[in-house]
Amino acid sequence: GIELKVKGLHGSTAQWESIEDIKKIFWCKKTTTSEYVADHWMEDDFYGYQFLNGVNPGVIKRCSELPKNFPVTEEMVKPFLEEGSSLQKEMEKGNMFLYDQKKMDGIPPAAYNGEPLHVTAGLCLLNVNPENKLMPIAKQLNQQPSEKNPIFLPSDPETDWLLAKMFIKNADCMDHESVHHFMRTHFLAEAFAVATLRSFPVIHPMYKLLFPHFRHTLHINTRGRQSLLGPDGVLSNSSLGFVGLIELMRRDLSEMTYSSLCLPENIAARGLESIPNFYYRDDGLKLWNIIQSFVKAVVEHYYPSDSEVHKDTELQDWISEVFTHGFLGNKAAGFPAAFHTVEEVVKFTTMVIFTTTVQHAAVNSGQYDFNSWAPNGTLRLRKPPPNTKGQSSMKTVLETLPNVGDTVVLAGLLWLLSDRYSNYIPLGTYPEERFDEPEPKQMIKEFQAALSYLSEAITTRNSHLELPYTYLDPAEIENSVSI
């Protein structure tokens, strides 16, 4: 904050005069990836890459049939497909993917300087090309097609296509921050933590297994509700505002399913098993399996059969608390209200630890890298989205971006959220040594060895990548939601 004030940026209501000026926000606080983003943000292949390996990798799905409200035609997209192919053929081959922000549709926007902002609950069609790159090939900025809601294409004037990409990204940033970051990691972790504290005594093996993964969570969430997601928090300076973001979270919670929180089922449901260069999936599935093996060993040690699960009233109280207060008793979404088998305990506990460690790292650690560069992704855009083609210029882009003060406040926040602190504890590290028996201590050693082996493999893989994917390297994953 001091650096931003010294430069006269903090609190400034001025508009950016050029894209290059945005690079001057920080002198020192730059990362290899943030520099890469600033150089490549306009490129379509990098735009597509971010739906796989950016900060919100959980939103696109395979498209085998276009939604009726997204009337993309063969003629529109044929120039952007492999020669000799067609839209139908690409869908049949599993090469078409869809981003659809329909859950945001109809939420009133926030006001800015007395005027309502604009929220684009849009759609984006993407294609995996012969070079195995995921490319955006069509965008519609609102749900209902009309003359004033055209489908934008890569062949449109450069700034029209650029603005369409920015408005889709603006909606994705709000969805990422409120839903996929705060609600699906921070606030779920809080529900798990409170239920653990209420249901288990400290000598219970499940308490010993779970509690290290809730370190600092209640503290950071309490702080976050005031400074980030409160009525006067930084995130209220978004196109949806505080009330709109809460409504978006409410809508997502009503649709949330148990399987969506379990990565193997999530990937399968979205049809992303074979899409190339999807490092979040590759690393995440390996981590899911490593965590599951560790949890299985510990749980089966203390619960040799299903009857022990039935008899443990504290365990049953815990899952009942989570079901009632965390998932609002939504049985239709597949969440268990009670445990009947050892296998059910293993799966649910794996999901809890994965959510509070791996998933949080995936959606939190890259925020400064990808979104400190406002043109690549920001919570607020000031001007209306384009509704006709050929009317925009780079001046329009600069007028659409947040003003200088709003841009630098968000960049400063993202630096804090992405930073690593001196008391950081990596995944699988248990300095308090809550388990006394030799068996679980050995299981922890094996867990740590598997994580170390995966870390080495990821480091080797990343050495061959133009842009390394480091967020799910076990050495870079914190053991709890603590920032």
TrEMBL record:
<dbReference type="GO" id="GO:0005506">
    <property type="term" value="F:iron ion binding"/>
</dbReference>
<keyword id="KW-0963">Cytoplasm</keyword>
<dbReference type="GO" id="GO:0005737">
    <property type="term" value="C:cytoplasm"/>
</dbReference>
<keyword id="KW-0443">Lipid metabolism</keyword>
<comment type="pathway">
    <text>Lipid metabolism.</text>
</comment>
<keyword id="KW-0223">Dioxygenase</keyword>
<protein>
    <submittedName>
        <fullName>Hydroperoxide isomerase ALOXE3-like</fullName>
    </submittedName>
</protein>
<dbReference type="InterPro" id="IPR020834">
    <property type="entry name" value="LipOase_CS"/>
</dbReference>
<dbReference type="Pfam" id="PF00305">
    <property type="entry name" value="Lipoxygenase"/>
</dbReference>
<dbReference type="InterPro" id="IPR013819">
    <property type="entry name" value="LipOase_C"/>
</dbReference>
<dbReference type="InterPro" id="IPR001885">
    <property type="entry name" value="LipOase_mml"/>
</dbReference>
<comment type="similarity">
    <text>Belongs to the lipoxygenase family.</text>
</comment>
<feature type="binding site">
    <location>
        <position position="186"/>
    </location>
    <ligand>
        <name>Fe cation</name>
    </ligand>
</feature>
<feature type="binding site">
    <location>
        <position position="360"/>
    </location>
    <ligand>
        <name>Fe cation</name>
    </ligand>
</feature>
<dbReference type="GO" id="GO:0016702">
    <property type="term" value="F:oxidoreductase activity, acting on single donors with incorporation of molecular oxygen, incorporation of two atoms of oxygen"/>
</dbReference>
<feature type="binding site">
    <location>
        <position position="181"/>
    </location>
    <ligand>
        <name>Fe cation</name>
    </ligand>
</feature>
<feature type="binding site">
    <location>
        <position position="483"/>
    </location>
    <ligand>
        <name>Fe cation</name>
    </ligand>
</feature>
<dbReference type="InterPro" id="IPR000907">
    <property type="entry name" value="LipOase"/>
</dbReference>
<dbReference type="GO" id="GO:0034440">
    <property type="term" value="P:lipid oxidation"/>
</dbReference>
<feature type="domain" description="Lipoxygenase">
    <location>
        <begin position="1"/>
        <end position="483"/>
    </location>
</feature>
<dbReference type="InterPro" id="IPR036226">
    <property type="entry name" value="LipOase_C_sf"/>
</dbReference>
<keyword id="KW-0479">Metal-binding</keyword>
<keyword id="KW-0408">Iron</keyword>
<keyword id="KW-0560">Oxidoreductase</keyword>
